[in-house]
């Protein structure tokens, strides 16, 4: 797979069997993510403190096979420090909180059964929380860059909320999948990708 003309980033869990498969495939990069729903797969990043030794073993094996490693983490300085200690080349900052606040503030989400209960707040509070979430992501991204890590961001990003994240200059990559594929149902995949790229570039 390393001979591919385009870089391949393969998301994977830290399960030993899965890491062995990734090492055989040899993508350019492996992004290590929480492996079970109980480990807040879509609600947060890796538990780099609680699973430090297991993650370290996975990172070492991937790097032995010349695979760059990214860790999907919450945007916190202490977790970034741990990611450096683990030998990561890159971190992907979890943008789920930002995306949830944005949706509660700017869409009808709060009136549906998918409403985020913890964010059922007055609009003034949501606006403040949104700015705080953006500041947290910016601070974490700049700190990770300062520590020598490449920085990506992802989770819950879409055509409506991506522009604020694009303003954070230390973020060099956005990982967006579901939103593009969902839009492609109506526009076709090529148009959906072009539209997202135009938003990012603007």
Radius of gyration: 17 Å
Largest sheet: 6 strands, parallel
Number of helices: 8
Q: State the distance separating the first and last CA atoms.
A: 32 Å
Sequence of secondary-structure elements: EHEHEHEHHEHEHH
Flag low-confidence runs.
none
Helical amount among residues, as a percent range? 40-55%
Strand order of the largest sheet: 1-2-3-4-5-6
Question: Structural class from helices and strands?
Answer: alpha/beta
Total beta-strand segments: 6
Account of the 3D structure:
- The structure is a single chain.
- The chain is an alpha/beta fold and 202 residues long.
- 47% of the residues lie in helices and 13% in strands.
- It has helices at 16-25, 52-64, 77-85, 96-106, 123-146, 162-166, 178-187, 189-201; strands spanning 9-12, 29-32, 68-73, 90-94, 150-154, 173-175.
- The longest helix has 24 residues, at 123-146.
- It is globular and about 50 Å long.
Summed up:
The chain is built from eight helices and six strands; from the N terminus they run βαβαβαβααβαβαα. The chain has helices spanning 16-25, 52-64, 77-85, 96-106, 123-146, 162-166, 178-187, 189-201; strands at 9-12, 29-32, 68-73, 90-94, 150-154, 173-175.
């Amino acid at each position: 797979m390393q001979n591919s003309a385009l870089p391949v980033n393969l998301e994977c869990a830290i399960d030993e069997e899965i890491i062995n498969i990734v090492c055989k495939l040899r993508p350019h990069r492996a992004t290590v993510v929480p492996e079970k729903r109980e480990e807040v797969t879509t609600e947060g990043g890796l538990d780099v403190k609680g699973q430090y030794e297991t993650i370290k073993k996975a990172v070492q094996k991937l790097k032995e096979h010349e695979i760059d490693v990214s860790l999907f983490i919450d945007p916190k300085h202490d977790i970034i420090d741990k990611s450096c200690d683990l030998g990561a080349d890159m971190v992907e900052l979890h943008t789920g909180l930002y995306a949830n606040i944005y949706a509660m503030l700017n869409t009808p989400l709060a009136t549906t059964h998918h409403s985020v209960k913890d964010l059922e707040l007055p609009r003034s509070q949501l606006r403040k929380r949104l700015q705080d979430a953006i500041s947290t992501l910016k601070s974490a991204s700049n700190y990770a860059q300062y520590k020598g890590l490449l920085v990506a961001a992802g989770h819950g990003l879409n055509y409506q909320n991506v522009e604020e994240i694009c303003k954070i200059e230390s973020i060099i990559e956005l990982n967006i999948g579901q939103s593009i594929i969902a839009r492609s149902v109506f526009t076709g995949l090529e148009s959906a990708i072009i539209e997202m790229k135009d938003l990012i570039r603007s």
